Amino acid sequence: MKLWLAPLEGVSDCAFRTLCYRHGADLTFTEMIRVDSLVKKNTSSLHLLDLKNTTPTGIQLLAVKPQTLQEFVHVFPSLGIEPVCFNLNLGCPSPDVIVQGGGAALVKRTKRVAELVDILKKLDYPVSVKLRLGLNAYEKEKKVYFPLLKEVDADAFIIHGRHARQKSSEAADWTVYEACLETGKHIVPNGDITERKDIEYFKKIGIKEVMIGRAAILNPSVFQYLKGKEKVSLDILKKEYIPLAEKYPSAAKYKENVLAYLGKEMHSTKWLM
Ligand SMILES: Cc1cc2nc3c(=O)[nH]c(=O)nc-3n(C[C@H](O)[C@H](O)[C@H](O)COP(=O)(O)O)c2cc1C
Questions:
Q1: In which region does residue 101 sit, left (phi positive, over 0), alpha (psi from -120 to 50) or beta (all else)?
Q2: Which atom of ligand 1 is nearest to the CA of 31?
Q3: What is the pTM of this model?
Q4: Pocket residues for ligand 1 (CB within 6 Å)?
Q5: What is the pLDDT of residues 97-130, one digit of tens each?
Q6: What's the CA gap between 137 and 22, in Å, rounded?
Q7: Which atom in ligand 1 lies closest to the alpha carbon of residue 87?
Q8: How far apart, in whole angstroms, are the C-alpha atoms of residue 267 and residue 12?
Q9: Domains of the chain in sequence order
Q10: Atom of ligand 1 at shortest distance to CA of 194?
């Protein structure tokens, strides 16, 4: 089973991704980066494209308008960075993103997503999408994500098993994945995967990759643990992380977040629930 590190805003910068890669993550992602800000050459968004070493990294983009994504495709080669792949965010639950038709509001906009994927594919990298199960319980019930799975030509569909109104304190719904696999598409489950028995379950139903988010914030060596080795002590992880955060370098907010949550229990951390 291959294990992917989830895009994590305020956490998954180059130093954190590298720590996870050293401890068993097979592929990592940047946090969500707004395409319209990249096209406008907004400095803080450009900083998020921090691919500074050989850690395999995909770039997650928040795109809504085909025209803006087209402009990004035009400027991307001049940025001189080499991601492993691109990912489109169809899961952001933030109201200001949804009101513009982006994030989780895109799940039911099959034609628009197909158009965005086709535009991004012009860059000749694999393109995945990361989706929630719709905007709300009604959309999840109606399975609005199925037309997307069937009609969009993405290389992988990372499916976070919640709709956009659900908090992380509600369990992710893993019962959706078997039907998703029947579409013949490349399905990557995400949500609440923390234990070796979870990996066994996904192997049994025919999954080849899963994505891990919060469990990696609590312990970046969770990847090697899920692959059968022991977790690394928090002291050693801190000693490894601090020089990485200096070398690449991490913004203060990222360093604070990583060090604050290392070793915490999932349910004791309001930020992650
Ligand atoms: C602090 C934090 C930041 C996140 N940032 C992003 C993001 O930038 N893009 C994204 O698609 N999802 C983001 N997510 C959602 C995660 O990628 C993941 O889908 C979610 O946490 C469920 O997986 P988990 O149970 O393994 O954590 C974020 C989650 C957390 C807790």
A1: left
A2: 8
A3: 0.97
A4: 6-11, 31-32, 60, 89, 91, 130, 160, 190-193, 212-215, 272
A5: 999 999 999 999 999 999 999 999 999 999 999 9
A6: 38
A7: 11
A8: 21
A9: 2-272 (3.20.20.70)
A10: 26
